[in-house]
Amino acid sequence: MDCKLWLAFSVWLLLPTSEAGRQMPKLSEKKLCADSECSHPILIARAVQDYYPGDCRFIPIRQGQLIYVYAMLRGRGNLFWAGSVQDSYYGQQEARIGHFPSSVVEETHPLMPASTEVETTNWDFYCN
């Protein structure tokens, strides 16, 4: 009996505890993008403060970093944007698109109008 209990406990310890590979709740049902696939950046923004994400849907941002913004969430999630962080040296940080509060950045360069409303999908909030 002790052996089975020890084996079950050992397996439980090895189970992943991260949020990776699972569906997270949607922040919004719609988003504004430059095109129907949200593949073109809307604007470039600069971080005015550090941001430490609460879960895997969000990206960490350091003050001064440039962020390419691809989508602005609408409705209940309208305080969040989706983008990719660019360090001062290209390739220094892994390119990853995630969400962040619009309040931690300032718009520096508008690129394309965010005139296309697109429904969000489960993949927009999937943690990988």
TrEMBL record:
Domain SH3: 40-110
Keywords: SH3 domain, Signal
Protein name (record): Melanoma-derived growth regulatory protein
Domain of life: Eukaryota
GO terms for biological process, alphabetical: extracellular matrix organization
Signal sequence range: 1-20
